[in-house]
Amino acid sequence: MKTIFGILFMSVGMATVAHAQKLNAAKVPAPVIAAFTKLHAGTKVLWEMEKQDYEAGFKLNGKETSEVYSAKGVLLETETAIKPSELPTAVLTKLKGTKIAEAAKITKANGSIYYEAEVKGKDLLFAVNGNPVKS
Question: Which residues are the signal sequence here (predicted)?
Fold first, then answer.
């Protein structure tokens, strides 16, 4: 399985795809660095710019993870790589007979959860109940 790390950097939860730009940590605003460090002190991180937001890519509990922060350091969402078999049954039912290359769980700051599945090179987004979500 190709690494989901690259895909996590290329997509912002809700499957809003933007042209990611690698970013030197020195160019990340202090509030963003402070917010990330408060949650993940000592964690090796790679930064990218996603539109006006900042995306941190790192490993958490052995899983590829990314977090998106506003310029003020507010955590907007967390995306964690999961095995395709870990997708909710409702999502797997919608994708029955389709090869799922990669999958991720997306948790928004408000607590809402979405699931992303890569199918035929495209990221598809689903609500927990299996309904497709427009990106």
Answer: 1-20
**Closest C-alpha among 121, 125, 124, 81 to residue 103:** 81
Q: Does residue 109 belong to any structural domain of this protein?
A: yes
Token code pair at residue 75: 């955590």
Check which CATH number belongs to the domain holding 9 and give it: 3.10.450.360
Q: Return the number of other C-beta atoms located less than 10 Å from residue 19's C-beta.
A: 9
CA-CA distance, 14 to 130, in Å (whole number)? 14
Assess contact for 57 and 64: CB atoms under 8 A: yes
**Each residue of 6-42: pLDDT tens digit?**
433 334 333 333 446 888 999 999 999 999 999 999 9
CB 64 within 8 A of CB 97: no
pTM of the model: 0.80
130: left (phi over 0), alpha (psi -120 to 50) or beta: left
Task: Report if residue 105 sits inside a domain.
Answer: yes
